[in-house]
Specification:
about 280 residues; alpha/beta; seven-stranded parallel sheet; 7 strands; about 45% helix; about 15% strand; binds nicotinamide-adenine-dinucleotide
């Protein structure tokens, strides 16, 4: 059911690759709620993914960009303002990549060139986006910027590797820029810390199937799906959350506050039974 929460609003969605992407679901939901959109991803992602389909569905123009390139990101902002005939009201940063994870290099054997690339793509790109948006005064007053994070920023999780450092930096950038942007322009900057989700990026995490099962058993409300995340993003883009900024908002069915649950104990005890 749509509520018209984004009626008349304009937004940029970075990071939809295919229909499993969290950004894809956010774009669909924002469109349903009345927003006009532009979409962005890398030229490679445009070739390998199916963004054209989302573009047709939502009437949104695709503006290719490598999020680490200041020139590309600036172009996304300027072209979006040209299309909308004015400023944007919200932006989703749904971008992450680690070559160390992809190549299976462990945290105690990282390739540092890859590590720097991980930080640039997954965290610094958020700073670049905010800096350029502010420079061009691209976001309306009371606008909202959201990036997607993960609980590995706070808690160690085997296999999440250098992405954990990138997410910690991403969340810190949201706070540091959130202060500046809030003070000067009344613009909100937040991160959403989402449950593990089966997407192209998610499937790169070591043992993702087991992880998804574990977090689901641990969370009183169960894992948050990509669709759930899209609904939450819509509320953060809407006028109903105008005083929420500089926060890392856990959207994980309660997982981040749990230490042990009955459903997880039940499953864990079964492994002892098998040993006996
Ligand atoms: N899937 C999960 O379990 C999970 C959980 C919490 C947070 N997140 C975060 O959600 C976000 C979206 O990931 P997803 O799970 O939807 O996977 P996804 O693979 O669909 O999206 C990742 C996107 O990042 C884009 N990207 C990579 N390098 C880029 C670059 N240089 N410039 C621009 N874009 C680039 C990819 O093309 C892709 O569209 C990421 O930040 C991810 O870390 C995912």
């Amino acid at each position: 059911m749509a509520y018209g929460l984004l009626s008349g609003k304009k937004g940029i969605i970075f990071g939809a690759l295919n229909d499993m992407s969290i950004a894809w679901k956010v774009a669909e939901k924002a469109h349903e709620e009345g927003a006009r959109l532009t979409l962005s991803n890398t030229p490679v992602a445009l070739r390998l993914g199916t963004l054209e389909e989302l573009s047709e569905k939502t009437g949104a123009e695709i503006i290719p960009a490598d999020a680490t390139s200041l020139k590309d990101v600036e172009n996304v902002l300027l072209r979006s303002m040209e299309i909308f005939g004015g400023k944007v009201d919200f932006i989703l940063h749904s971008i992450g990549m680690s070559s160390n994870v992809r190549k299976g290099l462990s945290y105690d054997a990282l390739n540092y060139d890859y590590f720097l690339k991980t930080l640039d793509i997954s965290a610094l790109s958020f700073h670049k986006l905010l800096l350029l948006a502010r420079k061009h005064d691209a976001i309306s007053e009371w606008g909202s910027v959201v990036a997607l994070s993960y609980v590995a920023a706070q808690r160690t999780l085997v296999g999440y590797n250098d992405m954990a450092d990138a997410k910690a930096m991403l969340e810190s950038i949201a706070r540091s820029f959130g202060y500046i942007y809030g003070r000067d322009k009344k613009i909100r900057v937040n991160t959403i810390s989402q449950s593990p989700t089966m997407t192209t990026a998610g499937s790169g995490i070591k043992g993702i199937d087991t992880l998804i099962d574990f977090t689901d058993r641990m969370s009183p409300l169960g894992n948050a799906t990509a669709e759930d995340c899209a609904n939450y993003c819509v509320t953060l883009f809407s006028d109903l959350t105008r005083k929420v900024t500089m926060q890392n908002l856990f959207h994980d069915g309660g997982f981040s506050s749990m230490a042990m649950s009955m459903r997880a104990i039940d499953q864990y005890s079964k492994s002892f039974e098998e040993c006996d």
